[in-house]
């Protein structure tokens, strides 16, 4: 690991012919042995934030110039500049998903970085959209997919022992801290009469839930995540562009639904566009068909919808929005 205090020291740049997921190894990502390298006063997230704070956010003009140069040359060094200048954006977006994720917050950042790499590969700078704005869609898509793929890890423990641990852990840590030392998981486990592993898991869950924009970037810094991430806020022009895109999709959805009848119409409006969406079981009972048949009709509708949108909005692929196409 490079020394985060040396601002003149650059991470090793990738030398692949094209950028791919393996480029992640060159980014300041927490590895399996990372925690062993972190001093006691640091936590892994603070260490990571210090690493990426070395890289300034590019101006609109710089970002556009580098993006166009990469689009024309496919030089991985140019792609790398786009990636490292948007690592803060990944952290900001990951924060939006933390309430759905009760495990290691750095896992979300890692997946978001994979989405960022995909955005670099697919970005067309001649479309008139800012790269960081476009990348946000891919970052969100990868984080969301990771959460859904690992949904069993998201749910909080419901056993009596886990509930007891959850409610007592913070009070116990505050008590030990007031005595003048930072409690270790082993010390807390001994006091609560539970396994050390349970303490470690619950600490991670609580940490992920409590993380906020007011959290300090590092233990000896007054700078907060809000200040650290302030440069990633979309401009009014970008917000307007996003609303224009959504309006196009809303209009197409309305036009598409006018051609649906019977079961297709019900499943489209009550499941694909429902808020909240009806379950397969609910629609199965309402329509008098099996849950598998509901799923088959749903898949058929989605395929028809994608074809419908692509025919009327050829650039739809450029905006990786997921169903349902609404706020």
From TrEMBL:
PANTHER family: RNA POLYMERASE SIGMA FACTOR RPOH, SIGMA FACTOR RPOH HEAT SHOCK RELATED
InterPro entries named among the record's database cross-references: RNA_pol_sigma-70_dom (IPR014284), RNA_pol_sigma70 (IPR000943), RNA_pol_sigma70_r1_2 (IPR009042), RNA_pol_sigma70_r2 (IPR007627), RNA_pol_sigma70_r3 (IPR007624), RNA_pol_sigma70_r4 (IPR007630), RNA_pol_sigma_r2 (IPR013325), RNA_pol_sigma_r3/r4-like (IPR013324)
GO molecular function: DNA binding; sigma factor activity
Family: Belongs to the sigma-70 factor family.
Domain RNA polymerase sigma-70: from-to ranges: 107-120, 279-305
UniProt keyword DNA-binding, yes or no: yes
Domain of life: Bacteria
Alphabetical UniProt keywords: DNA-binding, Sigma factor, Transcription, Transcription regulation
NCBIfam families: PRK06596.1 (NF005143), sigma70-ECF (TIGR02937)
Gene Ontology terms describing biological process: DNA-templated transcription initiation
Function: Sigma factors are initiation factors that promote the attachment of RNA polymerase to specific initiation sites and are then released.
Record's protein name: RNA polymerase sigma factor
């Amino acid at each position: 690991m490079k020394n985060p205090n040396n601002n003149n020291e650059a991470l090793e740049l990738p030398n692949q012919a094209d950028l791919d997921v393996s480029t992640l190894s060159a980014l300041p990502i927490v590895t399996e042995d990372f925690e062993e390298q972190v001093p006691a006063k640091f936590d892994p997230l603070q260490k990571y934030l210090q690493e990426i704070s070395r890289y300034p956010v590019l101006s609109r003009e710089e970002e556009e110039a580098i993006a166009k140069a990469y689009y024309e040359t496919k030089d991985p060094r140019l792609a790398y500049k786009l990636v490292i200048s948007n690592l803060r954006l990944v952290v900001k977006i990951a924060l939006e998903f933390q309430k759905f994720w009760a495990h290691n917050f750095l896992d979300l950042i890692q997946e978001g970085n994979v989405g960022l790499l995909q955005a670099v590969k697919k970005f067309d700078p001649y479309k008139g959209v800012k790269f960081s704005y476009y990348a946000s869609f891919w970052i969100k898509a990868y984080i969301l997919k990771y959460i859904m793929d690992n949904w069993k890890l998201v749910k909080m423990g419901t056993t009596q022992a886990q509930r007891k641990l959850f409610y007592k852990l913070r009070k116990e840590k505050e008590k030990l801290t007031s005595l003048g030392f930072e409690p270790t998981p082993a010390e807390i486990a001994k006091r609560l009469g539970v396994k050390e592993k349970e303490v470690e898991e619950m600490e991670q869950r609580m940490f992920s839930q409590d993380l906020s924009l007011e959290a300090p970037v590092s233990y000896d810094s007054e700078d907060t995540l809000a200040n650290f991430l302030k440069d990633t806020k979309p401009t009014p022009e970008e917000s307007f562009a996003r609303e224009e895109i959504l309006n196009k999709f809303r209009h197409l959805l309305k036009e598409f639904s006018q051609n649906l009848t019977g079961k297709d119409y019900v499943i489209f409006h009550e499941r694909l566009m429902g808020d909240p969406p009806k379950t397969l079981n609910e629609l199965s009972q309402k329509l008098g068909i099996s849950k598998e048949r509901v799923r088959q009709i749903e898949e058929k509708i989605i395929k028809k919808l994608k074809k419908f949108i692509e025919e009327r909005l050829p650039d739809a692929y450029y905006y990786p929005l997921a169903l349902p196409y609404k706020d």
